[in-house]
Amino acid sequence: MIEPYGGKLVDRTASETEVKRFVEEQRDLIRIRPILDQIYDAEKIGLGAYSPLEGFMGSEDYNNVINKSRLSNGLPWTMPIILAPPQSGMLNEIKPSDEVAIEDMHGNPFATLQVEEKFRIDKQEFAVKVYGTTDDAHPNVSDLKHFGDIAVSGKVKLYKRLGLSVARHELTPRETREHFTKMGWNNVAAYQARNPPHLAHEYIQRVTLERDDVDGLFIQPIVGKLKKGDYKPEVIMKAYEVFVERYYPSDKVLLGSLSISMRYAGPKAVLFYAIVRRNYGCSHYIVGRDQAGVGNYYDPYAGHRIFDEFDVGVKPLRYQETFYCKACASMVSSKVCPHPNDQHISTSQTKIRQLLLEGKPLPAEILRPEVSQVLAEGDVILTESQY
Ligand SMILES: [Zn+2]
322 CA distance to ligand 1 centroid (A)? Predict the structure, then answer.
């Protein structure tokens, strides 16, 4: 199986003795309450999902990442992982070598930070260099206003998992690697998702599983911090669960969720997602058209090309746009279908959500009936963004 990124799976989870001590001593620790994105990041650091990171980035890594898309040690890395709590004032009393408690979304401490450095971030610069725009209509750029101006770095220790609605799907890198070993999968392809499955997703997943060099498929929807109009995490997972159970051989496919915030950074997000999946044990990474895109900020195929620029040890499996073709009478991609657009039925989520909202039936060419049924149960879409 592929090695974790950087060669070693980071494990910053506390031992039982440490947890006991934490429960007794946490009242004496200064607490910080990050925004939701960074709560999720703290947990993922602890579990090794962001190996080789052992904590939140300091100024050197941060500047290398936003300017050169590399960590200070030279490894390619495209997403800053920083802790910049909204109330910077609470950081005044914190100094290097302090231990502080990190609160979860309910205000309960679940991790600690061994403080190394405090540094100022320029949010305009962050927006331009990471997302390529300062446009407030971009969801992640808009989220930057919830970040504080001061970031605090240091190693994270995880004492407790986050209590999430999708908790039973939140496999750790250690657990997925154990599963792949048990199944005898050497090469595993990762499928990134953020929506319930439709037949274009299924087409790409099946074509991937047909490959000689792929032993198994790990489907891992991102279900962390979501924005208004997204499907709820438990809906995405339920739809995938019924789908995988009904349509895939259980010895070829594993389903797990990944609670982190979506980074709509186009190619930079694609590379970051591929690195994270490598830590979960995946050697191959599926990249469709416009993955991690939003609006028209990114070239839809830049996510294919970034793997030519940076080698993160994961083999990208690049797919073009997929849709149902009436003339072919099957799901196809633009690579294999010669027919004009009027023969094609789009599988866009916007269209599916529109039909749902209008109470119209979802076409069988696009969705499996079991998935349609989950979506038709109603109350499936978030009406407010989460912070
Ligand atoms: Zn066709």
Answer: 11
